[in-house]
Amino acid sequence: MLRILLLSLHHQNELKHKRMKDYIKRKAKERGISLQDIATALGLSSYPSFLRTIETGDNLKAKQLRTIADMLGCTIDELVAGEDANVNAGTIIRCPQCGQEIKIKVE
Questions:
Q1: Nearest of 36, 58, 59 to residue 48 by alpha carbon
Q2: What is the pLDDT of residues 68-85, one digit of tens each?
Q3: Where are the domains of the chain?
């Protein structure tokens, strides 16, 4: 039972890091920022080392998260959650097929 729980926690962490990586890629593209630019701003030697850092979640310090969030125009909470706050609040949903945002107007 403990092994299943540990595997489940490991899988959840992998999903969290994937969401964050996908969010960073999407927001960077929206803002016209390359991932190499972000890697350089963080003092990482290369784009691949930046991706490895995000994929594993290792060695990301609060200052680095702040730098990434500032470059992408989002909050640290949005960055870590891998979604914009308004998506989480229910005013925008994202199409699971194409990733396009769909705005919902509640009257």
A1: 36
A2: 999 999 988 888 888 776
A3: 2-103
